[in-house]
User: Which sequence fits this backbone?
């Protein structure tokens, strides 16, 4: 059985496009993961089995994407003591219903929540959690963060030049 660090659960197949940035980030950092579609409402026994199976495979962090009522992250959290990161999916209510459903968990069942459709941020948060005990991953993450900073510095220089803002003394 292949070992994984992160397990991504989507509430429906329509959430797959929102999971793609998370998958790309995990692949980019070389983090072993798996993913599946499973509904908290339509297949709750299957969801419990998926969570248990993922834990047996070494899963350390769960990412759950869900829209509308968005109970999936909370139900995953009810079945594990591992961290769960919820990704609210955009809906006709601009994802506000999803965001509030995930963020408003009862005491004792925490779920970290990222922004609406922010699968990449969910993966980066999972990577930050994993990097606490993985020096190689921590180095990759530090390099990634440095590249983000370098990109902002480049944007600043280009924008100042474009706007003809003089150099500071």
Assistant:
């Amino acid at each position: 059985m292949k070992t994984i660090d992160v397990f991504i659960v989507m509430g429906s197949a329509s959430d797959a496009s929102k999971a793609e940035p998370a998958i790309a980030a995990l692949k980019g950092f070389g983090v072993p993961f798996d993913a599946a579609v499973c509904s908290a409402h339509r297949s709750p026994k299957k969801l419990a089995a998926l969570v248990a199976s993922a834990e047996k495979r070494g899963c350390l962090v769960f990412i759950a994407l869900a829209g509308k009522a968005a109970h999936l992250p909370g139900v995953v959290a009810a079945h594990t003591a591992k961290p769960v990161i919820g990704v609210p999916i955009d809906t006709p209510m601009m994802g506000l219903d999803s965001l509030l459903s995930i963020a408003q968990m009862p005491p004792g069942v925490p779920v970290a929540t990222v922004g609406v459709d922010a699968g990449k941020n969910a993966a980066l948060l999972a990577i930050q959690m994993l990097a606490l005990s993985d020096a190689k991953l921590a180095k990759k993450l530090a390099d990634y963060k440095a590249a983000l900073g370098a990109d902002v510095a480049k944007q600043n220089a280009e924008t100042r030049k474009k706007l003809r803002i003089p150099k500071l003394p």
In short: Residues 61 and 126 are 6 Å apart (CA to CA). Strands lie at 6-10, 33-37, 61-66, 84-88, 112-113. The first strand starts at residue 6 and ends at 10.
